[in-house]
What we know:
Helix content: 40-55%
Distance between the termini: 101 Å
Order of helices and strands: HHHHHHHEEEHHHHHH
Number of helices: 13
Structural class: mainly alpha
Low-confidence stretches: 306-316
Strand content: under 5%
Shape: elongated
Radius of gyration: 27 Å
Amino acid sequence: MSNDKSSPPSPPTHAWVESYLMHLTVDKGLSERSIEAYSKDITGFLIFLNSHNARLESTTDDTLFLYLVHLRSRGLASRSLARHLSALRGFFAFAADESWLPASPAALIENPKLPRLLPDVLSREQVDKLLAAPDTDTPLGYRDRTMLELLYAAGLRVSELVGLTLGDFDAQAGLLRVFGKGAKERLTPIHTLARDFLSTYLQSVRGAFHPREQFIFLNRSGKGLTRQAVWKGIKRHATAAGIPERISPHSLRHSFATHLLEGGADLRTVQMLLGHADISATEIYTHVQASRLVAVHRAHHPRSTPSKPADEDEGL
């Protein structure tokens, strides 16, 4: 009796898919992890086609629609469905460009509706408590206070904060040069208090970390901080400040945008300060504003409060 165990069947492959993945690797320069993700999503579609005795060359928009229904039946959420569709949309656009297909069958299929999650926003009082939490009598505390000030003063992403180098701060003008998503550069102003903290940190505190790199913010080894280290610090200081709400890495960025809008800033200006390529990404903060306005209205409008007894009415 043989002890050999049958190996699992190999996933289906196709010459078109292999060419597309090579295109992503060579022409687009995507990372190995990204290539694996695209390969996995497209292979899932090939498995679906095989199970229905269908051919990749005969794919139509109806085929793709049935595939999305199939994924939904497996419990995938809208965000996961959108990711699968994005992978297939890129693949079929490439196939059409190569004239393997007359047109992309995915071109007219809309993305599944994604929920617009409102961001976590701190109140002004909570921001004040968080900023005051680090012990500025120590180098680590002063560094952390400066980082928190910049995150809130400029609405920086954590990745943008840790990427700041010595040449990115213009102390005289009070400007930061920030490299955002896609290495897009923007200049963002910071207020006087944040500028003073940063200037003092650079002149009198940073040297205590025995710098080995040009990044502004350093760890105990003199090297640049990681995003994870900054995030852990924010959580620690939030706990010390007694802030019970869930804090995210973007909490100060969200609060920056919301507080600007509440103070009268226009949406286009906030878009530029945040470095959003599309204003629709900034519009989510108007929903935060609206929800707060509703709460204020309910709390303070006279018709939203219990009626006074008749003998207390002052009359018309």
